[in-house]
Amino acid sequence: MPSRLIEVKNGRATVSDAVKHFASALSPLGLAAHALTTVGVCTTELAQLHIEKKRLLVQREVALAVVQGYEGMLVDLFNQAKADTQISQVSTQAIIASIGIVGEAARDMRLPTDERQVAMSTMTVFTGQLLVNNQSNRDSWVKLGQVVNFRLAEGSISALRELR
Asked: Is the pLDDT of residue 136 over 80?
């Protein structure tokens, strides 16, 4: 951020050689020449810095407004998708089949990372939907375990039985 008139050395601001040279040309002022020149340069730099700060604050506000607008659009999209999901009675079999598909995609290292992340996020949603749709249907748990390839699915079913 320093200009050509100010230099930063060892964490301290100093005037440049050009300012020192100019100050030495003001010989009638004697020792005050350097100090007065430094005051003038600092005053100018502080004014420029104030202008730059204002510009950055405006940029920040604009960027924040853009982010907030995007957030609002995402919330609207999320709420609409959630409402659509509740309206359509999705069958347990369709959810289990979809979990199998996204499970394979999540493990497929040939896919780009962002696609695998989408698959993982989707699997979480599908699994939650399956739980909501079939809280008391133990067979769905076994099918889910087979599809996602959990070896301990039977142990989970046994544990659920014990909880009841």
From this structure: no
